[in-house]
Each structure stands twice: as structure tokens, then as C-alpha cells.
Amino acid sequence: MDSKQIIKKYIMPRAWVRVGGILCALILIATLAMGFVAMNQEVAEPVEFFPSETPTGTMAYIDVVGLSDWVYQYDDMVYYSVEDAQGYLYTVRLKDSQVKAMAAQQTYWNRETEYEPVPQPYHLVGYVQTTTDTMKENLSSAWAISVAEYDQYFGTLFLNCTTSVAAEKSAGWFVGALFSGLFALLCLVFQCRAASLSKKCLKVMEERCLLDKAAQQLENTEEHQVIGKNRGIMTRDFIFGRGTGAVVAYSDVIWAYQQNRRSNFVVTCSYLMVATPWMNAEGIVDMNNGDRDGHLATALMTISQHNPDALIGYNSANRKAAKAARKANN
């Protein structure tokens, strides 16, 4: 194995990143395909809705003659009560456009006498779902009745008229596609970033005829200073970042500092950032779960010992000095 391959074997992302990215891309394609198939599957004709008997997950209909004002709202989900020609009551979830289309039914609901003419029934089709305990509590409270009375009047099911069987079946596939796509994208970004950085680093090493020297030091494990759980290696003359694509000579370091990424004020990832004459500040070593044991602080001390001229630590003065030094070198 030549020197370049020895170095690349350590600094490039592990094979599982590439394999994982390919697998997730294949899963993405498969789940998208299944989602579109589910969306276009033929669905059985809607059946008449019986709020305590119709199987959940099927399409059903109500011929509505009366529509109440909204009874219960949670986020963008708005629930109404409807009445059929026989006077039976049902709970439904509607879109604004459906409510507007049933203006005559709302007028009939608010009738002052029983002699008002019955409007033409509005054929309302929806997806049968179980009424949750929380929904029952809120709906029964709105009607000033008990939950038991609610079950008696409205049943244990409701009609969701904002979705369909096809939409519900395809939703799971599309969620799977979203997550697999995100993971595939992360793998691609990680792989491309490491490839770009390694290309830059190895080009400099090759131009200076340092590849053999770096490979020899990388293979000589007796002189290694390992960063964390093998997140990077510091040898006599070089820093190698595992999986980041980075190999940098101490003599090239203009500025080095630790950068922390936080989530809810908790450090979730730490990076050893290094700037050189030929490279803006890049994370050449990453500590995925943060640097709780101070490995990066030790690494910064090692850089300072090998290159006393290197600027260590992040502050505005060092940032300005590093920018001026890079500009002078270029």
C-alpha cells in the first residue's frame, strides 16, 4: 500500500458511512415508490357511517342536513357536530372549505322552529377514526354533558374529513422516506466534506514530498498521541483527523482553537479547528459527544509545543491575526 493510501485509510470516513448512505438512498427510493403506490391504490366505495360500528381506517359518509359552529379546536384540527335527516348526531373534523360549502346546513342547525325546510343533504365523506379520551372530555364539556352521555349521543368514532385512506397509508411511507433521505444526505455531506479536505491536504503534502514521512509516522504507533477514543492522532510532525479527511503539519498551523456545538446549552460535539496558509479554519478532529475529558485542550498544548508561533484559542485578536497571517502567506 503506498503512502497516500495508508494516510487515506485513516483520515477518510469509515466504509459504513458510504454503505449506510447508499442503503438509505435505496430505502428512500423504495419508500417513495411505495408511498406513491399507496396514494394511487383503488379504495373501496365509502360506506354509511355508524359511529359505534363502522371499522376504523375505512372511508364512510354522512348525508348532512345540519352543521354546528365549531365545538372543539386543537392546533389546526377543528371539530364540529353534524346532523342527518333522521336527527342522529355525529362528530366530524372539517376543513374551512367544507364548512363554507355547508352554509345552508349551518343555517338549518340554528333554526328557530322545527318547521324550517330541510336543506339538500351534503354528502360528506371522511376517514373513520376513534375518538380519543381527550377529545371526548373536551367535546362533552362543550356540550355540557358527561362522557357517558357523549358516547350515547355521538358514539365512539368520528369522521375525519380532512384526509383519506390513501393519504393515511402513504403518510407512513413518506415519513420513512424523509428520515432515510435525511440520513442519506448527512452521509453524503460528511463524505463529500472529508473528500474535499483530504484532497486539499494530500495535495499540499505531495507538493512538499511529505507523504512518505507522514505515512511512516502514522504507522509508528509507539510515538502516537491519540486524541480521545481514536478521534485523531498526533505524531512527531503531523495531526491526523480520523474520518475528517485532514492531515496537517504542525509547522503549517497558523491558528488552532476548540469549537463546541451546543443543544439546549449542553455541548453535543466538539471540534479541533485549525487554520493554515492554504486552508481556512476547518474542524480537523471531531469529538462526537463533546470533549468532557479535555482531550482537545491537550491537543492544543501539543500544537503550541511543536509550533510556538501558532495562535491558540478563539478570540477576536487571534481571529484578526490569523486572517492577516493567511493574507500575508497568500
Overview of this protein structure:
- With 330 residues, the chain is of the alpha+beta class.
- Among the domains are: 47-162, no CATH class; 220-329, Roll (PH-domain like).
- The chain has helices at 3-11, 15-39, 96-101, 103-109, 133-143, 147-154, 165-207, 211-219, 295-306, 316-329; strands spanning 47-48, 59-67, 72-74, 77-84, 89-93, 122-130, 157-160, 225-227, 232-234, 238-241, 247-249, 255-263, 266-276, 279-287, 311-312.
- The strands form three sheets. Strands 2-4-5-7-6 form a five-stranded mixed barrel. The chain has a four-stranded antiparallel β-sheet with strand order 8-9-10-11, sandwiched between helices. A four-stranded mixed β-sheet has the order 14-13-12-15, sandwiched between helices.
- A hairpin with a 2-residue loop joins strand 12 and strand 13.
- Helix 1 crosses helix 8 and helix 2 packs antiparallel against helix 7 (165-207).
- The protein is elongated.
- The two termini are 34 Å apart.
- The mean pLDDT is 85.
Q: In angstroms, what is the radius of gyration?
A: 33 Å
Approximate helicity band: 40-55%
Mean pLDDT: 85
Note the overall shape. elongated
Note the gap between the termini: 34 Å
Helix and strand sequence: HHEEEEEHHEHHEHHEEEEEEEHEH
Tell me the strand percentage band.
Answer: 25-35%
Q: What is the overall number of helices? A: 10
Structural classification: alpha+beta
- What is the number of strand segments? 15
Low-pLDDT stretches are none
Biggest sheet architecture: 5 strands, mixed, barrel
Strand order of the largest sheet: 2-4-5-7-6
